[in-house]
Input
Amino acid sequence: MILQVDNLTKRFGEKTAVDHLSFTMDRPGVFGLIGTNGAGKTTAIRMMLQMIPANEGTATWGGAPITRQTLRFGYMPEERGIYLKTKVLEQLVYFGQLRGLKKAQALQAAKDYMKRLGMSEYENTIAEKLSKGNQQKIQLIATLLHDPQLVILDEPFSGLDPINAQMLRELILELEDQGKFIIMSSHQMATVEEYCKSLVMLHHGKTILQGDLHKIKDGYGYTSLRIAGPESAIAMAERFGLQYREKTPSASVFTLPENGAAQAEAYLRAILAQDMMPTTFVMEQPTLHEIFIEKVGAQEGRAAQ
Amino acid sequence: MKQSNQIAVVARYTFMDAVRKKAFWVTNIIVVALIIGLALFTPMIGEDESDMYISGDAAAEIEIGGGYSSEIYLIDESGGLLGDAKNYLEEYGMFEVTVYDATQLEICKQLLEENGGAAVVRISGDDGLPLVEIITQDDAWIDTFQIEEAFNALNRTLQMKARGLTDQEANDILSSALTFSYEIIGEAESGSNMLIGSVLMILMFFAIYYYGYAVAISVATEKSTRVMETLIVSAKPSHILLGKCIAMGTLGIVQMTGLIAIGGIALSFFAPESTFEILAIEPIPITKILLILLYFALGYALFVLINSVCGATVSKTEDLNSAMMPATMLTLASFYGGYFANLMPAAVGVGTGANITTYIPFTAPFSVPFLLLTSDVPSSTIAVSLVLLAATTVLIAFISTRIYSASVLHYGARLKLSAVIRMLRDKNI
Output
């Protein structure tokens, strides 16, 4: 199956919230939809799932327009919403039935997921009595209990404590192993970088970067050098065209010039020749965060011109 | 998933959710208590004046709060112009009589005031003609007509005896009565089932208002708690809307039917048979019952759909009342229009029977059921009224689902009318 998004566009009056968004997801895994708040991520998801009509473009699954009939999808919205005055199991069964499960199936699936996420003791608890993290887990169960083919998680880690975040991490990996198509929307670049093979980066509704994450990073090459070791060795770095950037608790960081891998190698050979052995010497590709800052900066610069 | 299944799932959940609420049961318990209380009170209402004139035994048995009894304090200063009044009155079966002498008038008044009683009666004579003076308490529920009747009967008996009739003959004359039979021709001016028609109209208003508000608040709550987003990825907004409307409509019919049934049972247990005559309750043909239910269903759908749209235009439940103001005004105007046009036709300048409110889709759900209960409405009138109502309901349903679908994901300030109209025109919706 292939998820194909073509030229999705949404305008609210004069403002274009999503401008000709296109991407393809041709294999299971985690796909990142990233951007700052207000970049158009949620609007794009809503259009993909037919929650709001698009002004232009299409979203298809296996060639057919995405509808509740053509695709079993699960969506966890950024703004968590559950019935606060209703018992947890009761509302999960309701959500399951709405997604086409029979009552017994929905009950079983809900119980299984609650057990899996350590929530069994809260089956008959009124939702408002749960902590925010547990309410979020209920929302996650509601998203998954009908065994969706496509899972869309909008800012899934926001508000989770480290233990629950770890639990969600494991669950996402499990879903990936099960062959699910997962779209993760987030403005937390580190999170996306951890999971996503491919991504689309949005800024003010426009796509500023997209593709396979490894290829994107390879395209940038090595952009920084992290080195720890004798001070005299570190002091030699700038002689090889490496620009000092910062000192972290564990190492000093230098910016490599464009295609600077050769200078870094020359530098390494030079310090080794002088018997100065670094304890850390790592050439790094840019983080997604750095790429994002660079792309947004370029976009803003163009807009300013 | 089949569309009908989704509507049924939403309807079932909404119905059960509403039924499980404490407020629902507290309201029902209070209303049932009121109904039973009214049914218990009805015999007192039913015991109207005509009963008291006719049935001396019943009247003699009633004592209300010590202020009403059958005790008569009798003083005869006439020298027996009315014979043995004490025995006669007691035999007449209405009173307990105690005789006092002429000097004890003040004592009798004091006794009446302190111990209660029907009256102090003083018989005096004027030129051989008896004069009966009746003294009652200001706050006593005494109809002096009963006492007058008793003394008149005594006087007539004495007159007849004086003319040579035996006791038996005098009694026969006094107790003789004609048999009457009645036939009413022409169209009833104040037809039967007027009361039940009025009550039904009020019940329909409350059902439409209360359950319409319930649907609106349910929609607004789902938006404010952000459940809506979870819901609409699972079901079409129109299905959610229809499911909710069906659930609350069914709940309304079940609740109203239950309360009417309890009322009927309570009346049949506690109220005298004459109550049904007094209330002019007549059997209602099944076709009329079905038509009334149809009007309820269409009218309910019409108003509830409008209310639900109001719920969808707000993001916070506290904004709901102001958003619902136009719908509330429309409901109130429609109800009062139907009410006054049918119960006070002259006051609003329409004739009796079918009138303009029969045809206006918003007033018809209140007006036509009343007319169906109280008169014979021509089939053609019903047909035109139903077609207009059904067409309007379908149109409103179409408009409501469009607005609802477009506005359920709107957050922030309450949607203004201009924005709602823009949504209606948006071809993308």
